[in-house]
Amino acid sequence: MLTAEDVCGTRRGYQRHRRLNEEACGPCLDAERAYSRLRYARGDRTGGRGVLCAGSCGRVLSTGSRSGPEPTCRQCRGSARNAAMVPCPVCTSLFLPVRKSNGKLTLTCSVDCGNTLHWGRPVGPSATGLSRHAKWSIKNHRRRDEVLYDDHPYTLAEIACRDLFNCGLCGKMVDMSLSGMDRWGPTIDHVVPLIVSMDDRRSNVQLAHRFCNLSKGARVPVAV
Predict the structure, then answer these.
(1) How confident is the model at residue 196, as a pLDDT?
(2) Is this structure's pTM higher than 0.70?
(3) Euclidean distance between the first and the last CA atom of the chain, given in angstroms as a whole number
């Protein structure tokens, strides 16, 4: 339904033509040109199409680009950010200071540079360039290289048949139908803990309940 403002010969009529993807009629085009001339006469260089950038470029921004009382384009914001960057006193690389929760600005570009400025050297896991998980991975890899293995790896069924399905810790039968995650499920226990003996051969393993194995922990058995 057309209103009195949407009839031809007005700017709303011109906008209606644009919404319907129609070619604007002569009276609507004249109304749009008159509106543009009026906007330019008032000093609005955008002609109603948006706002002007508050930076040095003076380009026209869309109406959705308004971010604050002084809208600026991305290029001007980047130039202002680059102008605010300062060199780091430790590594001399440029960085943008940010305000911390205590209201003070950061003095260095990173935590390592901050520790170097405060303590005279980097501290923490990143001091060697490796994360904590990378250090653990290297440590476990070196430990695996030191463990003694058989030429052919053993299996749980093989150890269970050798021990006649008896737990090596409590002496009771082990139900092989249970899962290894069950309380009384079958597991492999190292007679002398692996962290102590570094021996993962058949001579150092036995069948055990999961509960018995966890109860033993890393304790070394004492001969009676």
Answers:
(1) 86
(2) no
(3) 102
